[in-house]
Amino acid sequence: MNDADVSSQIQQMVRFIRQEAEEKANEISVSAEEEFNIEKLQLVEAEKKKIRQDYEKKEKQADVRKKIDYSMQLNASRIKVLQAQDDIVNAMKDQAAKDLLNVSGDEDAYKQLLKDLIVQCLLRLKEPSVLLRCREEDLGLVESILDDAKEEYAGKASVHAPEVAVDTTIFLPPPPTSSDSHGLHCSGGVVLASRDGKIVCENTLDARLDVAFRMKLPVIRRSLFGQVAA
Questions:
Q1: How many whole angstroms separate alpha carbon 133 and alpha carbon 101?
Q2: Which one in 14, 19, 79, 120 has a CA-CA gap of 20 to 30 Å to 3?
Q3: How far apart (Å, rounded) are the C-alpha atoms in residues 174 and 137?
Q4: Using a CB cutoff of 8 Å and minimum separation of 24, what contacts does 198-204 make?
Q5: What is the C-alpha separation between 115 and 166, in angstroms, rounded?
Q6: 201-206 contacts, C-beta under 8 A, 24 or more apart
Q7: What pLDDT is stored for residue 125 in this prediction?
Q8: Cα 90 to Cα 212: distance, rounded to the nearest angstrom
Q9: Interval 26-37: pLDDT, tens
Q10: What is the pLDDT of residue 154?
Q11: What is the pLDDT of residue 227?
């Protein structure tokens, strides 16, 4: 083998090695690019997932805030409605209280009412001796019908007529005046108590109004506002 043949073989070997090196470098480059693309895709997908999760989280938070705001607005509206209804009902009661002041204006009817109230108290107390209080301006009327009231009670309860002491030193408050309509007042009626003060029957017109209004309040509300869901 001469020098020319040796040189030719060496050149072939060089070309072969260079080709293999280029092919290997190309494979490495392709593989690296694929790995880069895969990693890039994974990073992009991870970032997309994070963005979606953040968006869903914020969307849920916004939905919760929206529901809370709606609930607060709904409750505020309900409170306003209930307050308005209470104002109407209280205005009705105030008007009824003003109308009570006219009851004592009809002396004959008021005298009969006082007797009925006294009899009712006696039937509730069932005491042989009681103390009676009334307004100072009603003292004469009360004393004029007291005996009839005691006899009526005795007949209904089948007992002896009780001893009824009318308190002439401490009276029930007077009716309200235009200058002091919110002060302590009484529109009429009586209060009876056992002599030891342990049992009291308050049968004033104001107390009767409070009881009647409290008992009839559901009916009044339904009549004014209809059936309201709880």
A1: 18
A2: 19
A3: 8
A4: 199/125, 199/127, 201/120, 201/121, 201/124, 201/125, 203/117, 203/118, 203/120, 203/121, 204/172
A5: 14
A6: 201/120, 201/121, 201/124, 201/125, 203/117, 203/118, 203/120, 203/121, 204/172, 205/100, 205/103, 206/97, 206/100
A7: 95
A8: 14
A9: 888 888 888 888
A10: 95
A11: 67
Higher pLDDT, 129 or 184: 129
For residue 105, the 8-state DSSP code is G
Tokens of 62: 């916004």
DSSP notation for 125-162: H--SEEEEEEBGGGHHHHHHHHHHHHHHHHHHHTSPPP
Structure-model confidence comparison of residues 150 and 179, the more confident one: 150
Query: Tokens for 173?
Result: 């408050």
Q: Give the angle subtended at the CA of 153 by the CAs of 149 and 157, to the nearest 5°.
A: 175
Backbone angles phi, psi at 161, to 5 degrees: -60, 130
User: pLDDT tens-digit profile of 51-81?
Assistant: 988 888 898 898 899 999 999 999 998 898 8
Claim: this prediction has a pTM higher than 0.85:
no
Phi, psi of 135 (to 5 degrees): -70, 150
Q: What residues form DSSP beta bridges with 166? A: 132
Residue with tokens 């916004």: 62
Tell me the sheet residues that pair with 191.
Answer: 133, 202
- For residue 38, pLDDT over 50 is answered with yes
State the pLDDT at residue 166: 96
